[in-house]
Design goal:
Number of helices: 3
Structural class: mainly alpha
Strand content: under 5%
Helix content: 55-70%
Shape: rod-shaped
């Protein structure tokens, strides 16, 4: 019976910490985008994560590859 004098306050403290953590997470927008990460996994390369210089370099390389494949398909041009 005397253990209840320890367990009840301890459980109330843990409950208070859990409620505080929940409200902290809501205040700091931790639950703002619940679907984004699930959809983001479907894409291989997310260009928004790259710095602008790398994005431009990747676009130039893609254009170069596209031009090279067009030249290989149509050699009479």
């Amino acid at each position: 019976m005397t253990i209840l004098y320890l367990l009840i306050p301890l459980s109330l403290i843990l409950l208070g910490l859990a409620v505080w953590a929940f409200f902290w997470a809501v205040k700091n927008d931790q639950f703002e985008d619940l679907e984004g990460p699930a959809h983001r996994i479907l894409f291989d390369d997310d260009e928004n994560d790259l710095p602008p210089e790398d994005r431009e370099q990747r676009r130039k390389a893609a254009r170069h590859r596209a031009d090279a494949s067009d030249d290989a398909e149509h050699p009479d041009r």
